[in-house]
Structures are given as C-alpha cells and as structure tokens.
Specification:
The protein has eleven helices and nine strands. It is α/β, with parallel strands linked by helices. Helix 1 packs across helix 4 and helix 2 packs antiparallel against helix 4.
Length: 314
C-alpha cells in the first residue's frame, strides 16, 4: 500500500493560490494585482507605515499628499508585478522579450560580444520595476548566473528559482561557495545580483542613498574586483504601459591599492545609478524595506521619520 505524505494546510493553500494565479489572463492579473495592492496600502500595518516614512525621508521637499499618493502607487505596482508575473509564469520567456523596449541596445550588444569571447561581466541590479521578469528575459539572450538569497518558505523559494531558471539562468545561492561565481565569470557568463538592500547577515559598506548613508552589501563589488571583470547596471521597469530593459555601459572598475576604498567606490557608483532611476520611477521601488536599518558608528540605531511626516511617531 502506497503511503501518502500529508501536505501542510498552509502549503496546500499557497499552492492552490499559485495555481489560480497562473490561470488568470495577464490583463486581468494586472488589474486584480493593482486592486489588491491598493487595498493593502490602506491597511494600518508596519510595511505601510514604513513605506510612507521612507518616502518622506528620501523626498523631503514633497508634501504629504505626494507621499500618500506615491505610497499607494508603490503597493499597487507591487501587487500588479507579483500577480502578473505569476500569470505569465508558464509563458515562454522569449515571447515576453518581444514586447519589451530596450534602452542602451548598444551596451547589450557589447555584453553579448564579450560573452562570445569568453569574457565575464558582473551585473548590478535591484528591486526596481520587475526584477523577476528581468532575469527570465535577460537569460534568453545572455548566458546568465544569478546570485540569490534563499527565501524562508521552501515553496516560495522553489517557485522564484524555477522562474529564474526558465530562460536558462543558473542560480548560485549567497551561502554557496563563492568560487562558483568566479568560475561563472571565467566562463564568460554575466553574473547578476540584487544589491540594494540592508542585509545584516552580509558584509556591507556605507554609501549614500537619497542623502543618507545606507549599509549596502559589499560582496558584489568585492567579487567583481577580485575577478577583475567589467561591471554593468541592468534594470527592468514599467514606462508608458510597456516593460523597459535599461542596459548601462560595460565598464572596468578602477583598480586601487586600497581594496576597501575600491569596493566602497564601486558600490557607491552602482547605488547612484539605481538612485537616479528610482527618482524617475519612485513608485516602482520597495520603500517598505528597512534600507537605513544599520547605522554607521556614532549614529542612532534607527532612522526616524521627520516631524510631521505621514506615519511619524513622537
């Protein structure tokens, strides 16, 4: 007699929800995701409050009305991105690529030529727009390796990593042997990672982010400098109803006898590139993340919202 392993109720419910989301037409998923995101933005939760506080910190010249509208738009975008991405989960990545606009096509061609020559490139990207779509589409044209963080829930982790692998991307976890990343670079692959969050468990360096020092993972810059490979900034965001793939120039970081200073300089450069995009599309970044969680020595442990800001506390 075959023994059936029981499925935990939460995992079964999550699996059912995922199956239902995949059955939605993309247009309906986009609409429903925005509706769910807007409803979530109106709830009195920690993420909602933190989103408003961080927007007020990053844009001190904006009034309370703009902060509130942008906070709601942020959650609408996240809801749309999540549900739409699930709805197109089983669609061929190459088909999704055909509807995209490419900004910096000459830089993408330069990267493709470098890969054919067997020259690796380290790609910096972040939580702007649709980073999951970026991986799926990008890997269909460029041999790609992704440095990923393990998600706490095994089902969510399996779903995300399976989506990233659809276009042909390899996945290396942050806690894997770093030599796997170096091997990928030496094989002429583009190695990419999301580098724009304050993660206490990772080594970091303080660089400017919207006028305040923010602890930022230093590993990506350290690996790029160790491998002596060019770096490139690549992002995917929404503009005028279409997904845009923005590809920055492929440049070789300046070498320095001071390795720590070189790592910080490269991290600051890439953070500045992302900040410029976030200023253009503020509702497409994850403002509820604790971006200023760790403070430099001598500063307060937490960043408080300015007096009078939406959601601020005395």
């Amino acid at each position: 007699m075959t023994r059936v392993t029981p499925v935990p109720p939460l995992a079964a419910l999550a699996g059912l929800a995922l199956d239902l989301a995949r059955c939605l037409p993309p247009g309906l998923a986009w609409w429903a995701g925005g509706l769910l995101g807007h409803a979530f933005a109106l709830l009195p939760g920690r993420e909602q409050r933190r989103c408003r506080e961080h927007l007020a910190l990053a844009f001190p010249g904006r009034d309370a009305g703009w902060i509130e509208r942008t906070a709601r738009a942020t959650f609408r975008h996240s809801g749309r991105m999540a549900l739409w991405t699930l709805a197109v989960n089983r669609r061929p990545p190459a088909g999704l690529r055909r509807g995209m606009v490419v900004v910096g096509a000459e830089h993408l061609r330069a990267l493709a030529r470098a890969c054919r020559r067997g020259e690796g490139t380290f790609v910096f990207t972040g939580h702007l727009g649709n980073w999951e779509l970026l991986v799926r589409v990008f890997a269909t044209v460029i041999p790609t390796t992704v440095i990923a963080r393990r998600l706490r829930h095994p089902l969510a982790d399996a779903l995300v990593q399976a989506g990233r692998a659809q276009g042909g991307a390899e996945v290396v976890y942050q806690d894997d042997d770093p030599r796997a990343v170096l091997r990928a670079l030496r094989a002429g692959r583009a190695v990419g990672t999301l580098f724009d969050q304050d993660v206490p468990s990772l080594a970091g360096t303080f660089v400017p982010w919207f006028g305040r020092l923010a602890n930022t993972p230093s590993g990506p810059a350290a690996l790029a400098l160790l491998a002596r490979v060019p770096v490139q900034a690549i992002y995917c965001y929404r503009q005028a109803g279409r997904w845009v793939l923005q590809v920055g120039p492929r440049t070789l970081p300046a070498r320095s006898a001071d390795r720590t200073a070189a790592i910080t300089a490269l991290t600051a450069q890439q953070t500045g590139y992302l900040e410029a995009l976030v200023r253009r599309f503020p509702s497409q970044w994850v403002w509820w993340h604790k971006r200023w969680r760790i403070r430099p020595p001598g500063e307060a442990d937490a960043v408080a919202a300015p007096p009078g800001a939406p959601g601020s506390r005395p």
